């Protein structure tokens, strides 16, 4: 089963749409802040495009998604980047996301060889491991128009986004659900595969290409 969490009017093709509103294309109406009425180990892919920042308790929802997912299920999250004034000032957004986020979703972090780097956590890392294990397969940053490559080199952007806000607009992750032992080689191989992504991601790239 493939589910699209908080799909709204943009349910991903071939997915079961879940939202808290009755809308065209929504297959199941339920409260995303409550347990989802689906059985354990029944989901192979979760699409969460621009929806998770609105939930009341992010950790509770991730715990619920972990329950639903089979081993090696993939979870794709597209979310606002934490260090953008447009998102910081939005009172409806309860959670922000950046390149540190993947390190909070597992006690056994894996850094894929390709894609953006997740920096190390320092003094304020989690005191206890999370009750789930989502390991990073891919992370992509979508930059604000003034900073879109090739106007800047990627090395320049890495420095810029650590020094000032409003460099990155959104961020996308692909995580794999780990419930059994898995090797780094296997994770690396998965990270290099073709992974479904939200339509919004293609729209963002098209916007940059036309700039």
TrEMBL record:
Keyword DNA repair (UniProt): no
Highest taxon above the source species: Bacteria
Coiled coil: none
Protein name in UniProt: Methyltransferase domain-containing protein
Keywords of this entry: Methyltransferase, Transferase
Domain spans labelled Methyltransferase type: 29-74
Biological processes, Gene Ontology terms: methylation
Pfam families hit by this protein: Methyltransf_11
Keyword check for Membrane: no
Molecular functions per Gene Ontology: methyltransferase activity
